[in-house]
Amino acid sequence: MILLIDAGNSRLKLGLLPEGAAHRGADTRTFDHANLQALGDWLRALPCVPARAVGVNVAGAERGEAIAGIVRQACGCGVAWLRAEKQTLFLHNGYTHPEQLGADRWAAMLGVLARQPARHPPFMVASFGTATTLDTVSSENVFLGGLILPGPAMMRASLAHGTANLPLAQGLATAYPTDTDQAIGSGVAAAQAGAVVRQWLAARTRLGVPPDIYVTGGGWPEIRTEVETLLAQAGAARSVPTGPIYVESPVLDGLAAWVLQSERQPDQIRDNPG
């Protein structure tokens, strides 16, 4: 059994991959970073203790070391941390300095790419978490670049914390808000959807074909209607009939793809300190 670790800014998400499996299983667990003891308890309670662990960590070096220490105590193995490189598997990194790219974004693109046939349209990976990230990959498997902006919850929190009179709003999005909660909820949804459509249009212009859109993250339900409506108004409904495609755990899927490739090329994965 191989443990897959996605240490994000707000939470820790885990998956299990049986040795020799063709793809990652559906079983996942989520933990709060503030309660890592629960991670050790869960690992020790597993009927089959993982023999290996791979992961991505964007929660800081200290948090990565803490997670790796718990895994080592519970499972007796280190953690191999995936980092963005110039190329991993079939994905090429277009960043000027590839190592600056967040490992979670890199793994999510690997996870979506693993779903694609050899010949595929370009695609975007839109992740709505603590931060929203919008990344575009060409048909030639080149990461072209992407956006980072505050996620929906962070946008709402910044207004509540940075102003004297605005609440931490939970209002629904509407075209013409008539109260403050609606105004904030609508503004957040409009900002998120506008960024998605901006990148979709940019990719369509650059590549000559509309990219598919894969979405993930806890903020997606909040802004889904606004995104789908704005895409339809931009003409996306005719170009992408199925609309955005939801993916539960693209980061874990990317880690699974990385592991499976390592079984054919063992030098692809090295234990790293965090």
Topology:
Blueprint: E1 2-7, E2 11-17, E3 28-32, H1 37-45, E4 52-57, H2 61-75, E5 80-81, E6 87-88, E7 91-93, H3 103-113, E8 123-128, E9 131-137, E10 142-150, H4 152-162, H5 180-207, E11 212-216, H6 220-233, H7 236-239, E12 245-246, H8 250-264
Parallel strand pairs: 1-4, 4-5, 7-10, 8-11, 11-12
Antiparallel strand pairs: 1-2, 2-3, 6-7, 8-9, 9-10
Helix pairs in contact: 1-2, 3-8, 4-5, 5-6
Straight-line distance between termini: 21 Å
List low-confidence stretches. Answer: 270-274
Structural classification = alpha/beta
The percent range for helix content is 25-40%
Strand content: 15-25%
Key phrases:
single chain; 274 residues; alpha/beta; five-stranded mixed sheet; 12 strands; globular; disordered C terminus
Describe this structure in words.
Helix content is 39%, strand content 22%. It has eight helices and twelve strands. Helix 3 packs across helix 8 and helix 5 (180-207) packs across helix 6 (220-233). It starts with a strand and ends in a 10-residue tail after the last helix.
In short:
With 274 residues, the protein is an alpha/beta fold.
